UniProtKB/TrEMBL annotation:
Family annotation (PANTHER family): HTH-TYPE TRANSCRIPTIONAL REGULATOR YBHD, LYSR FAMILY TRANSCRIPTIONAL REGULATOR
Residues annotated as domain HTH lysR-type: 1-60
Gene Ontology terms for molecular function: DNA binding; DNA-binding transcription factor activity
Residues passing through the membrane, by range: none
UniProtKB keywords: DNA-binding, Transcription, Transcription regulation
GO cellular-component term (any): cytosol
Keyword Transcription: yes
Record's protein name: HTH lysR-type domain-containing protein
InterPro entries in the cross-refs: HTH-type_LysR_regulators, LysR_HTH_N, LysR_subst-bd, WH-like_DNA-bd_sf, WH_DNA-bd_sf
Transcription regulation as UniProt keyword: yes
Family: Belongs to the LysR transcriptional regulatory family.
Length: 291
């Protein structure tokens, strides 16, 4: 078993087809197929199930287990290269959903940037389901998402729970502790679906009214539409406080509120060797800045 075969195997997994994997490696499909066949011969099991078409590829059960080993091997090779070049670098790739990246993690990112010049940080914004795929492919080291989706080889912990509250654009922002959702104008609502439990709660209290005319999925779009007084939205407290700080929005707690919005921290049981130190630094910064 050699690194060339493992490189070919991981390329197929990450690109989803022999054609794209071969193009990414700048080799022919026949060369790629030969490398995969040699790898399977070396390990003694079939790793990839091949359908009739070259794009119909999936991992066998043995292939699923081997994927974790291949990622660890890849990380060790990177570490070996760094040792040989006598340059030790700490890298960390973080993925999170839009609202967490924009309103929860910024103080963490600022602290990380000031902590060490030797820490290379990559930050990605994706949907929760996409974050799991990126983790599985080894493209990010840690993720902060809104879905708890158990997967082999992953550690999933509750990271943050925060209430959902109302923000409303107002000429003279008021500070009111409580408001009933039925008191709010449905024609001026901007709807964001935060999680399945929120959707169920919303349908219960809004069943007698029409569905909101505007639905958005990013905080930037909320800012775009909420420039007109009277427009409102239900958002996590961290986002609401950011809006309120501009002096243009009132913040209201809901009577009979929906379930809290929960964020999960997800990472691999076997992180890349070059990311281990970065993950430790991130953990210490989170504890210092957020808790």
């Amino acid at each position: 078993m050699d690194s060339i075969g493992i490189e070919a195997f991981l390329a197929v997994i990450r690109h989803g087809s022999l054609t794209d994997a071969a193009n990414a490696l700048f080799i022919s499909q026949s060369t790629l197929s030969h490398r995969l066949a040699k790898l399977e011969s070396d390990v003694g099991v079939n790793l990839i199930e091949r359908g009739r078409g070259i794009r119909s590829l999936s991992l066998t059960a043995d292939g699923q287990e081997f994927l974790l080993l291949a990622k660890r091997w890849e990380g060790l090779l990177l570490e070996t290269t760094q040792i040989r070049s006598r340059k030790k670098s700490i890298s960390l790739s973080i993925g999170a959903v839009d609202s967490i990246n924009s309103y929860v993690l910024p103080p963490v990112y600022r602290a990380l940037s000031e902590l060490s010049r030797d820490l290379e940080i990559s930050i990605r914004t994706q949907q929760s389901t996409e974050l799991y795929l990126l983790l599985e492919r080894g493209e990010i080291d840690i993720a902060f998402g809104l879905i708890e989706q158990p997967m082999p080889g992953m550690i999933i912990d509750k990271f943050l729970a925060e209430p959902l509250v109302v923000i409303r654009r107002e000429e003279t922002p008021q500070t009111h502790e409580m408001i009933d959702i039925l008191e709010l104008d449905p024609d001026k609502e901007l709807y964001m679906n935060w999680h399945a439990s929120f959707h169920a709660w919303y349908n219960k209290y809004r069943s007698a009214t029409k569905y909101p005319p505007i639905r958005v999925d990013t905080s930037i779009l909320l800012h775009t539409f909420m420039e007109t007084p009277g427009y409102w939205a239900i958002v996590p407290l961290s986002m609401a406080e950011n809006f309120k700080a501009t002096g243009k929005y009132g913040l209201y707690r809901l009577k009979n509120p929906p379930p809290d919005r929960i964020c999960y921290q997800i990472q691999s049981i076997y992180p890349r060797p070059s990311a281990v130190e970065g993950l430790k630094i991130l953990d210490s910064v989170i504890k210092k800045v957020l808790y």
